Automatic annotation (TrEMBL):
It comes from Gemmata palustris. The chain crosses the membrane at residues 292-312. Belongs to the SCO1/2 family. Residues 1-28 form the signal peptide. CDD domains: SCO (cd02968). This is SCO family protein. Residues 335-347 have a biased composition (Low complexity). Keywords: Membrane, Signal, Transmembrane, Transmembrane helix. InterPro entries: SCO1/SenC (IPR003782), Thioredoxin-like_sf (IPR036249). Residues 322-347 are annotated as: Disordered. The lineage of its organism: Bacteria, Pseudomonadati, Planctomycetota, Planctomycetia, Gemmatales. It comes from the Bacteria. Gene3D superfamilies: Glutaredoxin.
Length: 347
């Protein structure tokens, strides 16, 4: 074996050794596949909301009120549509924005649509270590910021055991986890609307729950078939153009009225809910085309029925009129018809 051959052999062995020394992916098996129990289960650890429309929340679950006294969820809902707000009170950022956005939206509602009257609000801490002292401070601050009388009777800031908060938040599909390194909770931002019977009727996401929002270019194309290929410049032009168009977002008030089967709303609200339906794709109310067609059909039938009624009525009245009296002698065989021309006339 020549010197060059020996060097080549050593190089080959070194390369093989380095490959063998490389770390394998997370404890893979002999077939190279990581066992399922070693992988991170996203369904258990990812903070998100799994919508559970129609789910029943555990009304008899016991929490602690702002004075650390036991109170059930049923007492907090009080047979009214309710906004459920999952937070934790020492949250450094996101939970404060959620509550601020909610207060701002509720203050924009009409004066005759307030907390404690038409609806209630239940704020629940997901942190079992929190107690009434901090909850009471939060309640005083936000009820004061809301600034309407009677709100203190309808807005609860609850704390509870891990079992109670888990039972409630699991029922509404609110997934969260505790970050042991940061000592904070990783959780989504959103509200849940409950009916007076405690059933989930709607979800609101983000930190703002009313006003207007910008329709994104991607959202505007949803449901319109395959999208044509656009250059980056064309897409920028379209996006810029759409910034001038906004549409009303989901109205929290309408959702509360809808959750109560129309109770608590004005006649206009009920008519609006009759003709509009919730559009989950665009997170807002849009015209209910089927209802519009039905209304048009009913209106057409009413117009046709009214026309037929008037025609029949006119015909019946013409039959009951007395016969027209003819002039004397006008009935004889030699009588001159009234339309006869005078003698010597020309036609």
């Amino acid at each position: 074996m020549t010197r060059v051959s020996r060097i080549a052999l050593f190089a080959l062995l070194a390369a093989l050794g380095s490959v063998v020394a490389l770390p394998l992916p997370a404890r893979a098996g002999n077939d190279g596949v990581v066992p399922a129990h070693d992988t991170k289960n996203s369904s258990l650890t990812t903070a998100r909301i799994d919508e559970q429309i129609g789910a029943q929340v555990p009304l008899d679950t016991v929490f602690r009120n702002e004075d650390d006294q036991p109170i059930t969820l049923r007492e907090c809902i009080g047979d009214k549509p309710t906004i459920l707000v999952p937070v934790y009170y020492r949250c450094p950022m996101l939970c404060t924005k959620i509550l601020n956005g909610l207060v701002e939206t509720m203050r924009d509602m009409p004066k005759d649509f307030s907390i404690g009257q038409q609806f209630n609000v239940v704020t629940v801490s997901m942190d079992p270590k929190e107690h009434g002292g901090l909850a009471k401070e939060k309640r005083a601050a936000y009820v004061g910021e809301y600034g309407r009388p009677g709100a203190e009777n309808g807005w609860r800031f609850l704390t509870g055991t891990k079992e109670s908060s888990t039972a409630l938040l699991s029922a509404v599909g609110f997934r969260y986890e505790f970050d042991k390194m940061l000592k904070e909770y990783d959780h989504p931002s959103g509200l849940v609307i409950l009916s007076p019977a405690g059933k989930v009727t709607r979800y609101f996401y983000g930190i703002s729950y009313d006003g207007e929002f910008e329709v994104s270019e991607n959202a505007s194309w949803a449901g319109k078939g395959p999208r044509p290929e656009l250059t980056k410049e064309e897409l920028n032009v379209r996006t810029e153009k759409r910034r001038n168009f906004t549409r009303p977002t989901t109205t929290l008030r309408l959702s509360l009225i809808e959750a109560a089967d129309g109770k608590g709303g004005s006649l206009l609200d009920k008519l609006t809910l009759l003709c509009y339906r919730y559009d989950a794709l665009h997170k807002g109310y849009s015209l209910n085309v089927l209802r519009a067609v039905q209304a048009g059909g009913v209106l057409t039938l009413l117009l046709i029925g009214t026309g037929i009624f008037l025609a029949l009525r006119r015909e019946r009245r013409s039959r009951t009129l007395p016969p027209i009296a003819l002039p004397e002698g006008g009935g004889g065989a030699g009588a001159t018809p009234p339309t006869a021309l005078p003698s010597g006339g020309t036609a």
